[in-house]
Design a protein that fits this description.
InterPro entries: AhpC/TSA, PRX-like1, Thioredoxin-like_sf, Thioredoxin_domain. By secondary structure, this protein is α+β, with helices and mostly antiparallel strands. About 25% of the residues lie in helices and about 20% in strands.
């Protein structure tokens, strides 16, 4: 498993459009996922220990971010051939078991992950109401193990600032996670 850090935020970069199948049987688009004050796009998967370490906090923070008027969506970009734990059926199971409050989508062709420039799981893209990128940082200080309770909620704080001002924080600490499992060309 290769761990990777996200690059710096490209402030103002527009959110690429998508239309992907969700574990709920619906097709989800960028327009359908966005909220009146913005959108959080998360690239996650089922097998990555970095994602597993923060799943409870992802659910908590997603609910709190949605309450701010920001839509939240999770996209699974990995090729499940070598990682069966990331199969669509397992995505459905994980989403149900953890009561994901957001759509969980499969990027089977990996075209959406490439369009966003996603590099790892988890990888967070926080957009303002105009769908301009304002955050490309981490959830919190967690890595392969969850941070202790009470740690600073960096993603939530950033998305709250975006909801209130349309601008993300100037200082952002990169997210770290497992590299995306790209299909062989």
């Amino acid at each position: 498993m290769v761990s990777t850090e996200t690059p710096e935020c490209e402030f103002g970069r527009k959110a690429p459009d998508f239309a992907l199948p969700g574990v709920d049987g619906k097709i989800w688009t960028l327009e359908r996922c966005r909220g009146p004050k913005g959108l959080l796009v998360m690239f996650i998967c089922n097998h990555c220990p970095y994602v597993k370490a923060v799943q409870d906090r992802l659910v908590r923070d997603a609910k709190d971010i949605q309450a701010l008027g920001i839509g939240v969506v999770a996209i699974m970009p990995n090729d499940p051939t070598d990682y069966p734990e990331d199969s669509f059926e397992n995505m459905q199971k994980v989403a149900a078991d953890l009561s994901y409050p957001f759509p969980y989508l499969l990027d089977e062709t990996q075209a959406v992950a490439r369009a966003y420039g996603a590099v790892c799981t988890p990888d967070f893209f926080g957009y303002n109401a105009d769908l301009e990128l304002q955050y490309r940082g981490r959830l919190d200080a967690s890595r392969r193990e969850a941070s202790p309770p009470g740690c600073r909620r960096e993603l939530y704080e950033a998305m709250k600032q975006i909801a209130e001002t349309g601008k993300g924080p100037a200082e952002q600490i990169p997210s770290m996670g497992c590299s995306i499992k790209w299909r062989n060309a």
